[in-house]
Amino acid sequence: MIGALVEKRKLARIPKRLSVRFGTSQLQHTGFTEDLSPEGLFIKSQVVFKPGTPLLIEVKLSQSKVVSLKGVVKWAKSVPPALIRYTKKAGFGVHLEEIPELYVQFMTDSNIGARVAPKKVSAPVEVAEKNGQADTAGDALNGQEIVKAYEALPDQNHYQVLHVATTATQVQIKRAYYSVAKLFHPDHYHETANPVGLEQVKTIFCRVNEAYRVLSSDAHRRTYDFELSAKKLGLARKEHGGRSGVEHEVQLGRQALKERKFPTAVYYFERAVKIFPDKSDYHDLLAQALSSLPQRKRDAEQHYKKAIELEPARTEYYCHFGNFYDSEGFPSRALQQFEAARVWDPDNQDILKAIARLKSK
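Above: the chain sequence. Below: its structure as tokens.
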């Protein structure tokens, strides 16, 4: 019986993008439909009404045909306006109370089920609500949306990550954090995302948590706001050698690397490399973090090479690169790196021991 109802629901709906105007007493808001059924429609809009709200709706069926409808909000899902492009299910579903002949004819012409007679709803529509919040099922993003969000991350500050204004109150920040964190929570993606996508989601989620940690503390937020202002004006504090913002993020990356939070470490080191691409130690740190992510081994190799290219006399880079190759099962490549390190530091006992160990394999 349940399977038959589900199948019936699938057959009764079609995706259809139509312009919509709506409101409780006046048609003051706009949006568009995502799908239609004989007795309802899904409206995607930044403006969302609570379940049970009666609405007036005007749907533009064609250039010359507009139909007026009345309905009740059945379910709703609200996300921050800046995130609406990331999720398909942002808006609300409407159960129609009155179905005019023009809408019935449109549905019939579109082959969406049989003709449906106009009817009145005598009782409130039942909706699934928890603690006054609308149902939020279906939060997971697809692969392209994950990549888009991940690629935008390096250029975003904490406010942009949470999609709030710099003047946002603590209540607004907290509300935005819950919305964004839920959208990018890794638990949504263990079964759907590929390994690369899952690591990207974890990176975004860690970044969201870091943004909230800073902005939810008045003291940390004041410091962060000062750094944003300094960066915007091209200023830098002398005690940090002109790199206060980047050095702070590198320090956060080092801490994440120490705590084995590799996606977070990658995020901070990638930002540092983007701003200062000629800093060899940033490439080396990024390579160390990347080497712990199964899908980023090739990237790690390239950054080890870049670090050595920038400062070939830094023997620790060869050692890190050699240990990387050794852990990946390439002892001959590892030996080459330690031999190169010995050229710069021939009496280093750690290097000599590593060479002897690799030669004995």
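The chain is about 50% helix and 15% strand.
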